[in-house]
Design brief:
Shape of chain A: elongated
Largest sheet of chain B: 4 strands, mixed
Order of helices and strands of chain B: EHHEEHEEHEEHHEHEE
CATH topology of chain B: Alpha-Beta Plaits
Distance between the termini of chain B: 42 Å
Number of strands of chain A: 4
Distance between the termini of chain A: 14 Å
Structural class of chain B: alpha+beta
CATH class of the domain at 5-41 and 144-175 in chain A: Alpha Beta
Strand order of the largest sheet of chain A: 2-3-1-4
CATH architecture of the domain at 5-41 and 144-175 in chain A: 2-Layer Sandwich
Helix content of chain B: 10-25%
Strand content of chain B: 15-25%
Largest interface: B-D, 85 and 98 residues
Chains: A alpha+beta, B alpha+beta, C mainly alpha, D alpha/beta
Oligomer: heterotetramer
Number of helices of chain B: 7
Radius of gyration of chain A: 25 Å
Number of strands of chain B: 10
Chain lengths: 180, 241, 496, 744
């Protein structure tokens, strides 16, 4: 695996950041996924950075997991409530072995359970979480700073990028290696 | 009767009739039941709490006031409903309908949610609030045919299932069907006035079948649609005066 | 090395952004005093300081612990230990330690169970509805409400275990593949109930956790900076959250979806709890209204509990500037609506029975009125009174009044649950078996213990996790701004 | 793990979870809840026929024993008395065998402390005392006519100052005396209601505390619904609505002691109608006219003041005796509990006899099936097993007590009876007993009387004993009940009869046999010729076994046969004595209420008080459990100012009792009903200190004709006392009025 170098520039104003990102992106020809904006709060999509991959692929695929697992839950619900009742044909209160209402209830619950699990899984997978390794980061971000994090391939590019970020208003620039 | 006819046809369907006109409330059946089924005595403290463990109890109702007062007795035991409300609510299949029309309680499976007791309109299900207390010599009396129930599980009248099994075994040994009157639960066996009858209601010649199809037969809480196996024979209204 | 760009942007009048004059009142309070004096010339440092001090302030309840807190926790621990001791005794001696008896098989335990399940409906429902409807005032209170959901469900889930006769056989109810030749009966409402509560607990725990994620990162950073012991679990639980735009985007989508899912689960849960009763043929329980009635009742008691809790938090942790009267006011308005619906349902239930006068059903009301008359009045009167009182803004914004009103509502709702379980079971079809019931010391101790348990869980949560939804507050700051409309600058919010 | 493999794994886990659990469900899961049909049943054990000795009704029972332990008692279906049924006492008898408080060893009383001794020492002591006593011995039993009584009779007899008495149910003497004026055999009249269309129960609480509850309940059931298309109707007259009264169609609250008058009033109407319609020619017109003359003063209008039953009602009650006979009148405790008990019983038997005469004419008899009577055999058996009726009256118990006070006895033998507890305190039996230097008690349990004795000899329970018993059955019909040990005694106990025979032999007294078993065998062998149904081909041993198998011997059924015919001489005798004096009551005007002590089916006279089942089974009428109560009419209760559970004090000149009040609508306002058998002090854990003993209130009022204790002749006062208790009811106080929910 190739080594890569990271630069994290911290900004204090949204405008500065928004101004800086396209310039940096252009300068180093960064693809989606090679530049991140770190913030302490959720900004509406596409406000800070244009990320087509995220918009048109990830956010769409994200719902695949809840959907698929929902179907799995549906099947499990039917099997559990209906199927086992059918196999275990004990007469209880004159209820039929495959009783629709109870099966419906259990199926509903299981579908939702699996959908919930699916959405968490998709959050983890597409959000790249969990990742407990040492990564380029600065605690200032949670205190309100905005960070622009980029991934470049060489040391020279890294230095260049750091200078550029400082020029574009970063009050702090951090350099790192293999910690995107 | 049933909306789903998935049950196979059975030779036996056990039923009981209670002749309210004959019952004099003497309580012999109550004690016979306790003796046969290893039902523990709860003692004073538990009775004070309002508990009791009478699989068969004689309900007593008062009508009117002095001097035109009437006291009625109503022996109440598990009605062994065809569509028993208690069965479907059990989360662990601890109670179910067997193929002879009995509402069976499986002690081993019971976890003690007591839901069945809440759904029994006849309130004939009983709970073991404590472990049964059979001390020392009293153990000698315990019926080996009937298991003891530990604390935390529900129990109720079984129609003396052990006697039904023995009756069927004996009949099978002799290579015949069970005759009417072969099998008598302890209460039916002992009833001095003959108010209780037991038998196979599928056999149209059995006494219980005839009584159950007589004009006097009623089911308790018929409107609830539980289809009990116990039929009550209405008391006559006497025109003495 | 500030560039032209920076200058240019500060001149621009745009909606949103940290850098603009318009800050939500949430953050206004945390301005540096110096900069407050020189309001006209904000610079970057000021904004930085604002959010930092906001973080400091809202994390203060978590990171600073007074002696009183320990005393309080120990006191709670004693109450819980007392309840637990009675519970152990009950398990070993038998359910006879309670005062339940035939045919009153369910008693105060189940009433409390329903109460706690009801409480759990506040948090997630309120939070998902508000999240989905993007109500701006929701932001600071979500966490407190969601945590309440999770903990009251944990407490509620304890009660079936306390209630069953054979605790050591309770795994018979789980659909686990086994060699014991056992399988649960899914036709039983209890199974539905168990499934629903289990799933709701999973769901609301997930919801709580996902909601926590960004704030965990904030707390983590603070803990690491201060070398606080909390950094260990916080770094683990925050899953390496960096706040990248991709994380935020995926996170927002996922939490929206979760909000929808939870909103689907929550009403079904309390409906199913109501079906534990309504599926039986016991008169008084066997009614179709029970499903919605329980759900509304749950939300009713839940919102009231949220308000009680908010006011307590405000007082105890001096969070007046985060949880403001605005929030209590808004919640109270919601509470009025729910209270009216609940009262309406209650009236429906009563009126139907009263008019038909079916003896087995009307008998229960008479029985209730005779034996639990004062309870009935506290319940109904409390509800009507609270609607009446809360119609005044003065009362809605009076924290003391609201504290007691919402407490009264929840006392009433506890009574309601008790009256659903006890009078009906003590007045069964078979009149011979009518009975009376008063909870025993065991039952009361365990129930009191459960309240202490809830408070303890909450108290521990406060010290381990951020209680204010900081990320949401910050988001609110971002997406809103003043727009000049004629002579006034009006605060607007961007909605997606 | 990538996404695809995760999904795969998830699906696999889920499906295997479902399938693994219930793949072979029908084979595996269901067997767990449905026991296999061919599974082994536990052993059935052995079934022995014997006779229940819990009371003296003599019901044949079958005992199921498994591994040498008695498990269950059931009615013997071939026995003419039990007809395969059993009462609550019989059902609970097993609990007495395996009672944790049963006496295990012989004990000697050393200054109030009981010390265990060996049987040898115990019998030695008894022998020594019997030698010293030399004829100054008394024997007291519970009124049983059994082999033990026979043995005692033949050992001690009435020679040299020996005295035999019995402490049996109060009032039976009057039933015997009343019946004996009509029949040859002085035995309690037992009504067979099987075929009766109309029955008037006069204070007859036959189904719970009658002479033979099982038999009478059986005939009650037969009358009610045992016959196709006919329903027997019942009217109960008496002060209290007992369970029997509750199962009757109508309850008429008649003042205490006036039931005989009611019978005569009905008789007057019946005789009048008979003469008008010229029925019953077999009696003879002269006799009829004589009766009419004698009954002239008992027209319904004249008796109304005393019996408080409308003339109209009397006429309607009389009508079935003429029109629809068989009709029947049954006397019970409510009749014999008063000083006019004997004459009232006579009046009742007179009406029955009259009804039988009319019925005979219409070929309708009150008895459906009868046993063939054999007076000779009956007399022979009576001579050997049992005491002469004259030895069994309360008057005799009084004489015994007086004798004890007069130091007439050196040795007292008390067998299975507890007079210290269940006779009126004013008899002062306990104090009298202290004058006897040496007392022996044969008992299974420690009780108030046994505690007073010097030597306690634990008896076998009847399930472990040999005996033969003559039941209280219809006059002239011999029934010999055999009691055989169904289980081997598991405690260090010995049978009372054997011990007495051994001791008497050692003391040099002539004994009829070596032990009880051989005594019974000898008597049966002597009367072998009469025992027609035992095949003659059988030898002694075989016939003995034959009888043991069926539980005894009784004559064949004679289906549809004749009822016992009263002697014509008796009829005229009755006609001359148709006078019923007013009952006299004990207690002056300050005592305003009539005390109505009654036996419940469960407690009996107090024997049941140490049995958990007896306490646990709710009392039929009050549904109270584990508790004593005092019944008061609700109107009276509110007058006194008490509600259910309040403690009241009931006082008589002889003593007072306290207990919680139970307002009961089925009670006359001037009557206070108290169950007997409560208030034990030394009868074990369950019995002690439960309630108060109604016997504390009773004075000694005796029916002069029969010598019976008029146990309902006491007047008492009632006052509110301090405090109240929780009533352990089975029925809810409000729910019990909601019986209409069942739409019966």
């Amino acid at each position: 695996m190739n080594n890569h170098y990271t630069v994290l520039g911290l900004y204090k104003k949204m405008e500065t950041t928004v101004n800086a990102t396209p310039q940096i992106r252009e300068a180093f020809n960064l693809k989606d996924g090679e530049i991140e904006v770190l913030t302490s709060a959720a900004y509406p999509d596409e406000i800070l950075i244009e990320d087509k991959t995220l918009m048109y692929q990830v956010n769409k695929r994200q719902f695949l997991f809840p959907f698929l697992l929902g179907i799995v839950g549906l099947a499990i619900g039917i099997l559990l409530a209906g199927g086992t009742g059918w196999i275990m044909n004990l007469d209880v209160g004159g209820k039929p072995p495959f009783a629709l209402p109870p099966t419906g209830i259990i199926t509903y619950e299981f579908t939702l359970l699996f959908a919930v699990i699916g959405s968490v899984i998709s959050l983890l997978i597409y959000g790249g979480l969990p990742n407990w390794t040492e990564r380029a980061y600065d605690p200032d971000i949670t205190d309100g700073s905005l960070g622009i994090l980029i991934k470049v391939n060489s040391n020279e590019e890294q230095n260049k990028a750091a200078d550029m970020m400082a020029n574009l208003g970063a009050y702090k620039v951090k350099k790192g290696k293999n910690d995107f | 009767m049933k909306s789903f006819n998935y049950k196979k046809h059975n030779d036996y369907k056990w039923a009981m009739t209670v002749d309210l006109d004959r019952c004099d409330g003497c309580g012999a059946c109550v004690v016979a039941c306790q003796a046969e089924n290893n039902i523990p005595s709860l003692g004073v403290e538990q009775t004070q709490e309002g508990r009791n463990m009478l699989w068969l109890r004689i309900e007593r109702y008062i009508e009117g006031s002095y001097p035109d007062v009437k006291v009625r007795f109503l022996p109440m035991m598990c009605q062994h409903c065809d569509t028993a409300p208690c069965e479907s609510v059990c989360p662990v299949y601890a109670t179910y309908q067997n193929n002879e029309g009995l509402n069976v309680q499986v002690y081993n499976r019971c976890v003690g949610t007591r839901f069945c007791g809440n759904n029994c309109p006849y309130s004939v299900r009983y709970f073991n609030w404590y472990d049964p207390d059979f001390e020392g010599k009293e153990k000698n009396q315990l019926n080996p045919d009937v298991s003891l129930r530990e604390k935390g599980i529900m129990e109720k009248c079984t129609f003396c299932m052990q006697r039904i099994r023995r009756g069927k075994d004996n009949a099978a040994d002799e290579g015949r069907e069970v005759h009417d009157g072969d099998i008598k639960p302890a209460c039916v066996q002992t009833c001095p006035t003959g108010a209780l009858e037991f038998g196979n209601i599928n056999d149209h010649h059995s006494r219980v079948s005839k009584l159950a199809h007589s004009g006097r037969a009623i089911s308790l809480f018929e409107e609830k649609g539980t289809h009990p196996s116990v039929k009550y024979l209405k008391g006559g209204t006497a025109d003495v005066f | 090395m500030s560039s032209n760009n920076v200058k240019r942007s500060s001149d621009a009048v745009t909606a949103g952004g940290h850098g603009d004059i318009s800050l939500l009142p949430e953050l206004e309070a945390f301005r540096d005093p110096k900069s407050k004096a020189a309001r006209a010339s904000y610079d970057d440092a000021d904004i930085y300081r604002d959010e930092k001090s906001f973080n400091e302030h809202t994390l203060a309840p978590m990171f600073t612990t007074s002696r009183a807190y320990f005393v309080f926790v120990i006191a709670l621990g004693i109450v819980i230990a007392n309840g637990f001791a009675w519970f152990v005794a009950q398990t070993f001696l038998g359910m006879g330690q309670t005062n339940m008896h035939e045919p009153l098989f369910w008693g105060a335990y189940i009433a409390t169970f329903v109460f706690w399940v009801g409480m759990s409906h506040s948090g997630t429902i309120v939070s998902s509805i508000l999240r989905l409807s993007q109500a701006n005032w929701r932001r600071p209170i979500l966490r407190a409400a969601e945590a309440m959901t999770a903990f009251s469900l944990l407490v509620a889930g304890m009660f079936p275990l306390v209630h069953v006769g054979r605790l050591w056989r309770v795994y018979y109810m789980f659909p686990l593949p086994n060699q014991r030749e056992l399988w649960p009966n899914f036709k039983s409402p209890l199974m539905w109930d168990m499934m629903a509560i289990g799933i709701y607990l999973t769901g609301s725990m997930t919801f709580l956790f996902i909601g926590l994620l960004p704030d965990l990162a904030v707390a983590r950073d603070k803990a690491i900076r201060e070398n606080n012991w909390r950094r260990h679990y916080l770094s683990f639980l925050s899953l390496g959250w960096r706040g990248s735009h991709r994380e935020w985007s995926v996170y927002n989508k996922a939490s929206m979806f979760l909000a929808v899912a939870i909103l689907c689960i929550a009403p079904s849960v309390h409906t199913i709890v109501s079906w534990d009763f309504a599926m039986t043929m016991t008169p008084g329980w066997h009614t179709t209204i029970f499903g919605p009635y329980f759900v509304v009742g749950a939300i009713y008691s839940g919102i009231a509990a949220v308000i009680t809790l908010m006011i307590s938090l405000r007082w105890i942790f001096k969070l007046d500037d985060v949880i403001r009267t605005l929030h209590i006011d808004c919640l109270a308005k919601l509470l009025i609506v729910i209270a009216i619906i609940w009262t309406y349902f209650y009236f429906c239930e009563f009126n139907v029975v009263w008019y038909s006068q079916k003896p087995e059903e009307w008998g229960i009301w008479e029985w209730q009125a005779e034996r639990f008359g004062s309870f009935l009045w506290i319940m109904v009167g409390g509800s009507v009174l609270s609607i009446f009182l809360m119609s005044w803004r003065k009362i809605r914004t009076n924290m003391v009044a609201m504290f007691f009103i919402t407490l009264l509502v929840n006392v009433g709702m506890f009574i309601e649950r008790y009256l659903i379980v006890v009078p009906i079971l003590s007045h069964r079809d078979s009149a011979y078996m009518w009975t009376d019931y008063v909870p025993s010391v065991t039952e009361l101790s365990i129930i009191v213990g459960s309240f202490a348990y809830f408070v303890l869980l909450y108290a521990l949560f406060l010290k381990l996790f951020p209680i204010v939804t900081m990320a949401d507050v910050k988001e609110g700051v971002i997406v809103s701004g003043d727009v000049k409309l004629g002579r006034h600058a009006v605060r607007m919010q961007v909605k997606e | 793990m990538d996404r695809r493999s995760f999904l795969k794994f998830g699906a696999l886990a889920a499906s295997s979870g479902v399938m693994g659990a219930c793949g072979q469900a029908t084979q595996k899961v269901i067997p767990f809840v449905i026991p296999p049909e061919d599974g082994a049943n536990p052993v059935d054990g052995y079934h022995y026929a014997t006779t229940c000795r819990e009371c003296e009704a003599g019901c044949g029972v079958v005992v199921r024993t498994v591994n040498g332990r008695a498990k269950k008692i059931e009615g013997n279906s071939v026995h003419p008395i039990s007809n395969g049924r059993a009462c609550v006492k019989a059902q609970a008898a097993v609990q007495r065998v395996y009672h944790s408080e049963r006496l295990t060893d012989p004990m000697v009383n050393k200054n109030g402390k009981f010390e265990k001794i060996s049987w040898n020492d115990a019998i030695g002591m008894l022998v020594e005392k019997l030698k010293i006593a030399n004829g100054k011995t008394f024997f007291l039993n519970n009124g049983a006519n059994d082999a033990l009584a026979g043995v005692v009779d033949s050992i001690f007899g009435e020679k040299g100052g020996n005295f035999i008495a019995s402490n049996h149910d109060f009032g039976h003497e009057s039933l015997i005396a009343g019946g004996s004026s009509l029949f040859d055999f002085p035995k309690i009249q037992l009504a067979d209601m099987s075929n009766a269309d109309f029955t008037i129960l006069l204070g007859a609480d036959m189904n719970e505390s009658g002479v033979s509850p099982v038999y009478q309940a059986y005939t009650f059931g037969q009358s009610r619904r045992g016959r196709p298309s006919k329903r027997g109707r019942f009217v109960y007259c008496g002060s209290r609505l007992s369970p029997t009264a509750a199962s009757a169609d109508k309850w008429l609250p008649v003042p205490p002691g006036q039931l005989g008058l009611l019978a005569l009033s009905i008789a007057q109407v019946v005789v009048d109608t008979v003469i008008q319609r010229e029925l019953a020619p077999s009696v003879g017109r002269d006799t009829l006219m004589g009766w009419r003359q004698a009954l002239n003063s008992f027209t319904p209008e004249k008796t109304y003041k005393k019996i408080e039953v409308k003339a109209d009602y009397i006429r309607r009650m009389a009508a079935p005796f003429v029109d629809e006979a068989p009709a029947l009148m049954v006397a019970g405790d409510g009749v014999v509990g008063f000083t006019n008990g004997t004459s009232s019983t006579e009046a009742i038997e007179f009406v029955n006899m009259l009804s039988a005469e009319i019925g005979r004419e219409k070929t309708k008899l009150s008895q459906a099936k009868t046993l063939q009577s054999n007076p000779t055999l009956k007399a022979a058996l009576q001579a050997n097993f049992g005491l002469a009726p004259e030895k069994q009256s309360f008057r005799r118990l009084k004489i015994l007590t007086d004798g004890m006070v007069g130091n007439e006895y050196k040795v007292g033998i008390i067998s299975h009876t507890n007079p210290v507890f269940d006779t009126p305190k004013s008899l002062k039996f306990k104090e009298a007993l202290a004058n006897v230097p040496f007392k022996v008690s044969f008992s299974c349990f420690m009780d108030e009387t046994t505690v007073e004795c010097n030597l306690v000899l634990p008896d076998n329970h009847w399930l472990e004993s040999w005996s033969a018993q003559l039941p209280n059955f219809r006059p002239g019909v011999p029934i010999l009940n055999l009691v055989q040990p169904t289980v081997v005694p598991f405690l260090n106990t010995k049978q009372a009869g054997d011990v007495l025979l051994e001791a008497a032999a050692k003391a040099g007294i002539a004994v009829p046999a070596k032990n009880l078993e051989s005594f019974i065998g000898t008597v049966i062998e002597k009367n072998r010729a009469y025992l027609k149904d035992v095949p003659t081909a059988l030898d002694t041993k075989e016939s003995w076994n034959h009888m043991l198998q069926s539980g005894g011997w009784w004559p064949n059924y004679n289906i549809g046969g004749q009822a016992e015919t009263p002697k014509p001489a008796s009829l005229s005798a009755v006609s001359k004595n148709l006078i019923i004096e007013d009952p006299s009551f004990d207690g002056d005007d300050s005592y305003q209420f009539y005390l109505h002590p009654y036996k419940t089916a469960h407690m009996g006279r107090g024997n049941g008080a140490n049995q958990a089942w007896m306490h646990e089974a709710p009392d039929p009428v009050t549904t109270l459990m584990w508790q004593f109560w005092i019944e008061v009419n609700p109107v009276m209760a509110s007058t006194i100012g008490v509600v259910e559970g309040d403690i009241v004090k009931v006082a008589s000149p002889y003593g007072s009792i306290t207990g919680p009040v139970f307002p009961f609508a089925g009670l006359r306002p001037d009557v206070i009903a108290v169950p007997v058998g409560y208030g034990h002090t030394k009868y074990g854990e369950l019995a002690n200190n439960v309630g108060s003993n109604a016997m504390n209130l009773l004075g000694i009022t005796i029916d002069k004709t029969s010598g019976a204790l008029a146990f309902r002749s006491q007047k008492v006062s009632i006052t509110k006392d301090k405090g109240s208790v929780m009533m352990m009811r089975n029925a809810h106080p409000r729910g019990e009025y909601k019986g209409e929910i069942f739409q019966l």
